[in-house]
Amino acid sequence: MSLITKHCLDHNANQQQDTHGQHHEDARLSWFDQARYGLFLHWGLYSILSDPDRNEWVLFGKNLDLEEYNLLARQFIAQRYDPKKWAKLARRAGMNYVVLTTRHHDGFCLFDTATTDFNSVQTAAGRDLVAEYIEALREEGLRVGLYYSIKSWQWQAIRSGPGNDPQGWHDMVNQTHEQIRELMTNYGKIDLLWYDGCIVPGVQDNQIRARHWRSKELNAMVRSLQPDILINDRSGLPEDFSTPEQRVNPPAMGRRWEACMTLNQNWGYNIHDRQFKYPATLKQALIRCARYGGNMLLGIGPRADGSIQNEFVTRLESVGDWLVANGQSIFNSQRTHYTEADHVAGTVTQRGNDFYIHIKSYPGPVVRLDGLGHATSVRFLGDITNLKFDSVLNGALEVSGLTEDMPWDDGPLVMHVTVPKQPDSPARWLGGGDVLRITAGNAPVLGFDADHYSPPLMPVITGEALCLELDVERHPVNTTPSEGWCPGWHQWQVFTPKTKRTLSLNIDVPVLNAYELDLGLIAHQPGKIHIKIDGQVWDQVFEIKHPGCPDTWRLSKLVMEQGARRLSLYADIDFGLYALRRNACWREM
Predict the structure, then answer these.
(1) Is the predicted pLDDT of residue 389 greater than 50, yes or no?
(2) Whole-number CA gyration radius for the chain
(3) What pTM did the predictor assign?
(4) Does 391 share its domain with 512?
(5) What is the pLDDT of residue 224?
(6) Would you tell me which of 133, 305, 397, 475 could form a disulfide with 83, CB atoms 3.0–4.6 Å apart?
């Protein structure tokens, strides 16, 4: 065989191997991208106490005696535990996967383990609760997710740390690894592993935490036993997806993510908590996740006996009823530049050439959708009647025939628009000169020369206020951006530099911390935008790739000291700033 022939054969073999590997990776991840909605169940000994303040953290938060707390295992009988009912409720709610706490921070295991007798099989329940849960999910066709707390308060080492108790730390880590091995070995295929609690006393750096817990070794073992599994980002390593908690906070485009949030205010069962989210709130959160290509994992806490309170059931079923007609707009949604833009008509989700506009209330007889250009069909989901539509000036689509007697109270109603090709961009520049008028989706945004402005009367969304002071000629401006992604950009100005292509502003930092900083930027031509913070030039550069398209520059893990921090944006192109958000990166583990 000649060297050339051998090289060609090797090259073809490598190509086939790469193609096979990519197909496996696509299949491994595709269900998560399609699912969009899951149920998160926090259930354990803490459910007995139903503490109004610390809930599932009660052992640590109330500094309870460990031996007395562990006696709760004698009361944890789970007499009304029927995981088939849980699975049917999840399916009825329109969910596609479920995650259950197999072990929370208190160290009590809901599964059979050889590492400790502090588990549901060897105590009062006398049952492998995880095994029953997994079987019920499979019968209902739901994906199986297991939550596991890496840390356990059963070990003194989690309080003293590896330096003060090296042997205890070693034994604790070994127990964690062995219990994960049991979960990955004894229960068949597991679709998702949801870590939590990867902490080391006095250590904030995730990479160092991961080394102390041997997370790289742990996850390699998991993947060897469960090749198709997805792993979250809470073992100190990024792995497959991010998990913002109690907020819809998408990462940069291209990263999978899942927002976990509670239906009331607590993860575990809390009889005192009556602050249940309305179905409309839950639907809006789910739509928001789908808009940015993410999932929503909605948390409830079953009672200690295994039953689920009616307030949870009715709200879950209400969202499920809406999804029967409108799930097409949620499941398998894509995050695109068009969905990231805001639209007056409503939040937009997308699947290929199909666009879904979620309209909260009657907007009038005609709805205008900028940027979509031409359509092949327009109708409401759940209704076979086609709506009238016309293409108008500047690539907009006008849809008519809407009436007040449509079921807006059961909404949002979802308008399904099919287009023959992808829109060029969700925003266009109209006009020119000193004053520019932009449309971001269907939301007109006004870009002013610095001599011509009027601050908005109120923020679009209430939340943490950031004071913006812009450098303009003789006219310092103070305004309050919203804490969020600024829906309804038409209520905001696009601030542009007066003379030089530099814009400076002050950000009030309440405490020394690591922050995410989101800058909403727009420009009418390709180019690069640079940033200085307190005079220091940052290596990160933002590239405008889609002129006329509102985009977000996310600066991650900025360590900023308390006080007023000076930010300067500068570029070789004309650009504008329409939104700003500062977000603390810390979270309690």
Answers:
(1) yes
(2) 26
(3) 0.73
(4) no
(5) 99
(6) 133
